[in-house]
Amino acid sequence: MNSSPRHIHLSGICGTAMASIAGLLRARGHRVTGSDAAAYPPMSDLLAALGIPVAQPYAAANLNPRPDLVIIGNALSRGNPEVERILDERIPFTSMAAILREEFLAPSGRPARNSLVVAGTHGKTTTTSMLAWIFQTAAALDRAENSAFEPSFLIGGVAENFGTSFQLRPTLPFILEGDEYDTAFFDKGPKFLHYFPDSLILTSVEFDHADIYADLAQVQTAFRRLVNLVPQRGVILAWDGSPNVTACVARAFCPVERYGFAPDSLWRIADLHFAEGHSRWRVLLDGQPWAELALPVAGEHNALNATAAAALAFRNGVPVAAIQSALSSFRSVRRRLEVRDRVAGITLIDDFAHHPTAIRETLRALRQMFPSADGHAARLWAILEPRSNTLRRNVFEQELGESLALADRILLASIYQQERIPESERLHPDRVIATLNQRGISAELCASTDQIISTLVREAAPGDVLAILSNGGFDGIYQKLPAALRAAHPEAAANASSRPILASMQEPAS
Question: What distance in Å separates the CA atoms of residue 446 and residue 451, rounded to the nearest whole number?
Fold first, then answer.
């Protein structure tokens, strides 16, 4: 692909991966514009900080002046006015995953990168962020002017240690979150099949994305194809706690190293314990003591993620001391157990919930993070917007209730754009609520975000933890709720915070 500066337009720019590729393209020197139906944080903040204009909503006129190339996001389909103009006028177009490979992973005239891919139904964003931070820390400790450890990366979320979701460097390591969702309306294969990993972490495999996969077998087929792309010289780090993962890596052509709690796993977690929101554990390598690791976040799933990242980094030459230093200073990912605010002793948590398993692990981690002073758990609220294509369907209706049951009080919002889901496939929130109430758990179905906010303002008390669970904007609740709580508690001091949105992202001259 031609790498000279061009005008590149991204239709659907506010998706996490699309905003990240927009930043990478701008760092490479291209003129970048974009459009979307609507923009909301954190990616709208990132794009604004980059100075990339975003037109809203979609319109054919957004392609004026005519760009040299359009990247079409996977949320767009036939009938979209920009898609129709692109096809009518034969404007060159491609997908996010394709240009990532052609422009950055294997660019013409440059050495191919060392592609380190993190994939799985759950945990891939956090694990990718951990892996990138380990390499960045190793580069800092290396003290070399141009350390070979310094990574390029693309993450499906804003990594707090970097203040961004991407970084471009001339060195070979390129750390990628491998997404199993489809690539574009003209390429229905998973995005991660474009990334040709040299090494791979596989965190989990479950049925998800019910809008594009018919069943678990189709999901497993996608991951098997990814595994089949790893060369013999590569390595796969695979979680030991899932028969689905075992099935997907069974026919790999490269070494497969299992990690987790199983006694026979090569990378075995031992003596895991939590205290005051922190995690500590030992890792045994082939039965022998290898490292003691600490992480300033709780949750068994985070210890698993960190162990996978540590193992893959070590296999790529990163010293143990750098791994330990990086994990002890890891600051998580925006919208992953993120403390958004504290008002009048009430803690607001934002988490990117998209699947019952993710909800379960989030609520389990919050139980560990927020014990009260007397040793009893704080009252935990789960405020859920069924928004992902899986949660909006009834395929996991029972599992959703079981996950939510880990909270003390549950507020369930209406299904996001429920009219787009066939009625026979649609989640029945009233049944979830009824099942929870029958178990003696206080759960309520709310018709609007305003009703959720008024309930929380009326009933939430100091010490409570409010877990707001959605993979979208949730009708602005992240801004509306703190404002409403402050209005109800004028004595509470404003909790102003400033976050770095933009880190050093420009690729230095090679």
Answer: 6
Q: Are 256 and 246 in contact (CB under 8 A)?
A: no
Mean pLDDT to the nearest integer, 245-256: 98
Could you give the CA distance from residue 412 to residue 335 in angstroms, rounded to a whole number?
Answer: 19
Q: How confident is the model at residue 372, as a pLDDT?
A: 57
CA proximity to 6, closest of 71, 50, 73, 60: 71
- In b/e form, how buried is each residue of 423-447, taking b as 16+ CB within 10 angstroms? eeebbebeebbebbeeeebebeebe
Which CATH number applies to 111-328: 3.30.2310.20, 3.40.1190.10, 3.40.50.1360, 1.20.1640.10? 3.40.1190.10
pLDDT at 503: 37
CA distance 132 to 465: 30
Q: Which residues pair with 465 in a beta bridge?
A: 347, 380
Q: Which CATH architecture has domain 7-94?
A: 3-Layer(aba) Sandwich (3.40)
The angle, 0 to 180 degrees and rounded to 10, between the axes of the packed helices 320-328 and 124-142 is 120
Tokens of 32: 């970048």
pLDDT in tens, 307-344: 999 999 999 999 999 999 999 999 887 777 788 899 99
CATH superfamily ID and name for 338-488: Mur ligase, C-terminal domain (3.90.190.20)
Q: DSSP characters for 389-406?
A: TTTTBGGGHHHHHHHHTT
Count of H helices and E strands in the chain?
Answer: 14, 23
**Confidence band for 3, pLDDT divided at 50, 70 and 90:** low
353: its two tokens: 């919930």
Average pLDDT over every residue of 375-400? 84
- What percent of the chain has a predicted confidence (pLDDT) above 90? 67
Report whether pLDDT(1) > 80. Answer: no
Cα–Cα distance, 397 to 141 (Å, whole number): 48
pLDDT recorded at residue 498: 39
